[in-house]
Amino acid sequence: MPDTVQNAADKPKTVRLFIKEDASREERFDLYKRWMEQENEKLKELHRSQTSGMKVAKARSYVIDHLLCHMFDYDMKAFEAEYGKLPFAT
């Protein structure tokens, strides 16, 4: 087999944005940090593959938006669990 082919065991494990409800702030921060490192590597590979800067910037924007939406949704659920539903839609 060629050297360019990696075994599945050699590849780093994909980090998913799934947080347990009882996760501490430090655990959430660690997961977010590992996920961003993983996404940054993907963006670097995209950049190295001679993709246009506009596509790389759009991809970076999507990554940040996805992370912020995830963080907001998690915090809203935690807030509503502690204080009840908000009197207006979010």
Distance between the termini: 54 Å
What fraction of residues sit in β-strands?
A: under 5%
Average pLDDT metric? 85
Estimate the helix proportion, in percent: 55-70%
Secondary-structure element order, as H and E?
Answer: HH
Query: Which structural class do you get from the secondary structure elements?
Result: mainly alpha
**What is the helix tally?**
2
Radius of gyration equals: 18 Å
Question: What would the principal axes of the Cα set say about the shape?
Answer: elongated
Q: Which spans have pLDDT < 50 for at least 5 consecutive residues?
A: 1-6
**Biggest sheet layout:** none
State the total count of DSSP E strands.
0
Account of the 3D structure:
This protein is mainly alpha-helical and 90 residues long. Helix content is 61%, strand content 0%. The protein has a domain at 25-83. The chain has two helices and no strands. The relative contact order is 0.09.
Q: Could you give a short description of this structure?
A:
The protein is mainly α and 90 residues long. The chain contains two helices and no strands. The model is unreliable at 1-6 (pLDDT under 50).
How is the topology of this model organized?
Blueprint: H1 25-48, H2 53-83
Helix pairs in contact: 1-2
